[in-house]
Amino acid sequence: DTGVSQDPRHKITKRGQNVTFRCDPISEHNRLYWYRQTLGQGPEFLTYFQNEAQLEKSRLLSDRFSAERPKGSFSTLEIQRTEQGDSAMYLCASSSPTDREAFFGQGTRLTVV
Amino acid sequence: GQSLEQPSEVTAVEGAIVQINCTYQTSGFYGLSWYQQHDGGAPTFLSYNALDGLEETGRFSSFLSRSDSYGYLLLQELQMKDSASYFCAVTGASGGSYIPTFGRGTSLIVHP
Question: Residues 70..109 of A with a Cβ closer than 8 Å to B: which?
């Protein structure tokens, strides 16, 4: 297994467009997290899945954001009607119940112009 | 809710020892983790403390005092490649979910 993979690595979009990011966790991991990180800041929690169930959502996650994890495998994060303030690195992480650590993907860097 | 405080920047010379402190506030504490992130890279796990005391992993050690809501990361024999951002992250209980909440990070600059 090659770890957590995210696609695309970079996305440039015009304001008002919709974008969708994909995360493939490590195969045996049932926990999946989405974070957002801006320059000079730590990762900010967005949402958490345990298997296919979305158990936690941050107040940061406005109604323009939606995430899914069908069948408890890969996950998608969609942002509708993007705004310039959405420009950030979107990080996905996964872990198993016995892990002390979260394993991060390389992230998707979103630029809204 | 959860919050963490850590210094924004620390500088040191190669071969030295540096300590990065972290204080936190959380409900239902499970553990304190440390992650390293180089520019353009993903956060990578360094250390985890669930109980009070010191955990040592090679040149890196991490300490936790749950009564003080305080921990630190100790880096010894600093190398240039240690220049990176270091994040403490607290895992607290939230409705049965285990979600790491990250601090704003400490930028470590190692000089020759």
Answer: 91, 93, 100-107
Q: What is the pLDDT of residues A10-40, one digit of tens each?
A: 999 999 999 999 999 999 899 999 999 999 9
What is the distance, to the nearest Å, from the Cα of residue B46 to the centroid of all Cα atoms in its chain? 8
Cα dist. B19→A9, B56, B57, B76, B105 in Å? 33, 14, 15, 9, 13
Q: What is the pLDDT of residues A36-59, one digit of tens each?
A: 999 999 999 999 999 999 988 888
Residues B43, A106: C-beta atoms closer than 8 Å? no
- Cβ contacts (< 8 Å) between B103 and chain A: which residues? 42
Using 50, 70 and 90 to split pLDDT, how confident is the model at B96?
A: low
Tell me how far apart the alpha carbons of residues B56 and B111 are, in angstroms, rounded to a whole number. Answer: 24
A104 with B44: Cβ contact below 8 A: yes
pLDDT tens digits along B5-19: 999 999 999 999 999
Longest dimension (CA), chain B: 47
**SS3 at position A3:** coil
Report B:37-96 residues touching A (Cβ under 8 A). 41-45, 48, 50, 87, 89, 94-96
